[in-house]
Specification:
single chain; 145 residues; alpha+beta; Nucleoside Triphosphate Pyrophosphohydrolase; seven-stranded mixed sheet
């Protein structure tokens, strides 16, 4: 059976009650241009979601994730997203941004508002709607644990 839409593995990485997010490039043709989103990407043929996540994080920020845990799966007309989570074990200055416009640790109050400031464009930029919802779901689930 041919897959109708892409399979994606995404990381929720957290540190000191903040969440690592990528300010996506502001270019036409990509999902959520100029918005804050997660690191991660497409699952290639033969990869498991977890192995794809590990590969993508090395490619995008040169970060080796330790023991990601599965959170949930979100499917819409654009993709099936496997969401994993883990603590970010390094400070963000140790990360190497290889994809995207900016990266930052976003506090919960900014996730709730749906906007976060970036030094690169010198302005607040929106969180991608689905990325924001996933984080709100994650925060609620962790509060109930």
């Amino acid at each position: 059976m041919i897959q109708a839409f892409p399979l994606v593995a995404i990381a929720i990485l957290y540190r000191e009650n903040k969440f690592l997010m990528q300010l996506r490039d502001d270019i036409e043709g990509i999902l959520y241009p100029g918005s804050w989103g997660f690191f991660g990407g497409h699952i290639e043929v033969g990869e498991t979601p977890e192995s794809a996540l590990k590969r993508e994080l090395v490619e995008e920020i040169n970060y080796v994730i330790e023991k990601p845990k599965f959170f949930n799966c979100y499917t819409d007309s654009r993709a099936k997203r496997y969401i994993f989570y883990a603590p970010l074990t390094v400070t963000i200055d140790k990360l190497e941004l290889n994809e995207g416009w900016d990266l930052d640790l976003v506090p919960v109050e900014n996730i709730q508002r749906g906007f976060h400031y970036s030094d690169k464009p010198k302005m607040e930029k929106p969180l991608g709607a689905l990325h924001r919802q996933i984080l709100l779901d994650f925060i609620a689930a962790m509060a109930n644990d």
